[in-house]
């Protein structure tokens, strides 16, 4: 007799985080395709491919973090999402929609991504010390 259960990994956080991560992954792949096949400017292509890669990597990290409990993990998720939107989104707006001023927030997004990673580490540390 088989019983279905939700893996503990995905049970800790609100499902919206997992859905958000999946949508960010989907749009990262679509952005990569646009950059590779529909953008003529080599500089724009390179920037969009980099934004796509960063978005894809951080969407996977966000998916992982969606399963983590605790305040540090929640802060990590929030920072990762803000970083993706600000860093990747500003590059996408600049090169796809010619909104050059959008690039001003890219450094803030980069810092948010770094802080998100830091909070993931703190989350792991707090989980390991609480098990001791």
Name the features:
5 helices; single chain; 79% helix; 132 residues; elongated
Account of the 3D structure:
- The protein starts with 7 loop residues before the first helix and ends with a helix.
- The chain has one domain.
- It is 79% helix and 0% strand.
- It contains five helices and no strands.
- The protein is elongated and about 55 Å long.
- The longest helix is centred in the middle third of the chain and has 27 residues.
- α2 runs antiparallel to α3, α3 runs antiparallel to α4 and α4 packs antiparallel against α5.
- The chain is an all-alpha fold and 132 residues long.
Please give the structural blueprint:
Layout: H1 8-11, H2 15-37, H3 42-65, H4 71-97, H5 106-131
The 3D shape can be described as elongated
SS-based structural class? mainly alpha
Instruction: Note the gap between the termini.
Output: 36 Å
Number of domains as seen in the coordinates: 1
Q: What is the rounded Rg?
A: 17 Å
Sheet bearing the most strands, described? none
Order of helices and strands: HHHHH
- The total strand number stands at 0
Which percent range fits the helix content?
Answer: over 70%
Bin the strand percentage. under 5%
**Helical region count?**
5
Mean pLDDT: 90
Query: Could you list the spans in which at least 5 consecutive residues all have pLDDT below 50?
Result: none
What is the gist of this entry?
This protein has one domain. The model has no long low-confidence stretch (mean pLDDT 90).
């Amino acid at each position: 007799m088989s019983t279905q259960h939700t893996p503990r990994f995905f049970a800790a956080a609100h499902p919206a985080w997992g859905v958000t991560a999946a949508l960010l992954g989907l749009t990262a792949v679509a952005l990569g395709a646009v950059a590779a096949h529909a953008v003529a400017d080599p500089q724009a292509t390179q920037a969009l491919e980099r934004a796509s890669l960063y978005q894809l990597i951080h969407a996977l990290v966000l998916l992982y973090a969606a399963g983590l409990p605790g305040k540090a993990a929640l802060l990590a998720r929030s920072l990762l999402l803000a970083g993706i939107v600000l860093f990747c989104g500003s590059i996408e707006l600049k090169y796809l929609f010619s909104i050059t001023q959008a690039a001003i927030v890219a450094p803030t997004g980069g810092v948010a991504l770094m802080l998100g990673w830091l909070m993931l580490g703190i989350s792991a540390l707090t989980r390991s010390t609480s098990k001791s």
